[in-house]
Amino acid sequence: MIISTVAALTLLYIGLRCILPLRAPVVVRLGLFLLAALILGKFHVSRLLFQSWTPEFPFPLMAAWSLLQCALLIFAVLGVLADIFRLVLRLARRAPAGDAPAAAPRRGPHPLLFPASLLIAAFGVFSALRVPPVAPVEIVVPGLPAAWDGLTVAHLADLHASRAYPERWFAGVVDAVNAARPDLVVITGDLLDGSPEQRLDALRPLRRLRAPLGVYACPGNHEYYSGLKRWRSRFPSLGLLMLENEHIILRRNGAELLLAGVTDEVAERFALPGPDIRRALGSADASLPLILLAHRPRLFERLKELARPGAALQLSGHTHGGQVLGLDLLVRRLNGGFARGLYASGDKRLYVSPGAALWSGMPLRLGVPSAIPLITLRSPLAERPPQGAGASLAF
User: Fold this and answer.
1) Which of 12, 187, 230, 388 shows a CA-CA span of 20 to 30 A to 308?
2) Domain 133-378 CATH superfamily
3) Does the pLDDT of residue 145 top 70, yes or no?
4) How far apart are the first and last CA of the chain?
5) Is the CB of residue 72 less than 8 Å from the CB of residue 40?
6) pTM of the full predicted structure?
7) pLDDT digits (tens, 9 = 90+) for 60-82
8) For position 390, what pLDDT does the model report?
9) CB contact at 8 A, 196 and 226
10) What pLDDT score does 389 carry?
11) Do 332 and 339 form a contact (C-beta atoms < 8 A)?
12) Where are the domains of the chain?
């Protein structure tokens, strides 16, 4: 796993650059090395103790451990950058032959580097664990019938129910969504990190979600890791309709809209059907406007291949927006060029949510805040008052 590789490299840097050069007894240095290994190995300790890929520690311990874990990772990154900078500076200032030799380099990273890393990590972990704000988004969808202009959709993505995101966090999310009064609520996968016995209580606030057109979801890869077959019978009690390569027809003011959801590509590892947009749409009228729920944004490539005249918008998550500014460059490469925000191809649109939460193995956000997008659909066909008449015209 990527996280194991990153942890190992971080431990190697800390061991060689910080612990080994210490003028301390071997037993002290060994103890510091094992402590760093323990902090960075949170995921592996959890697997050893709980046989779970999701850490099951109580929330206070989870938050404190995550803070130290992220601080060490940030410390290593900043340390490497500082070392590179010092090396370049030394080479630039290298004395000519015969001059006095340059001063010896510092034996270890700057003493203020770890406190700075701790402060950055504290901000990043807090940003990851908070209840996300509602973020208004307007999307003009070519061909959207005027009857659907102004439809509001609360887009919940990557909720990751776990010890890091317990019942009180879900209650806060539900309160925020209900206060926004959306017409429709959708969840685009990775709702679960754990079995029904572990997570059902945390998800109970979802029963309070209110939207005139209903609450719908599609599965993400973490649903399959969490035992989707066992969860299926629990979704109705939470007020959710899970769309797995299927669709429903929504009606408003005499107009119809197609809402479809597909499975995740990891489903095939569990001998379950993978994502199939054509099957999800079935024999539905191709001229109807479509909202497609697909956990992974790269399925947009398959949507673009469909020759259908109706307006089409895909809503996705999975990427967490890149989670840390700069990492979105890697995330884009792994997800078909998509990370977060709005993308367009011809008359089709894709919106990728930055996500509401994260996998609890690495709860850190820096420069990529969590959010609950409140999407307002706009139709180019709708008549609106001219500018200055009191209406918002900025699309």
Assistant:
1) 187
2) Metallo-dependent phosphatases (3.60.21.10)
3) yes
4) 42
5) yes
6) 0.91
7) 999 999 999 999 999 999 999 99
8) 38
9) no
10) 41
11) yes
12) 2-93+111-127, 133-378
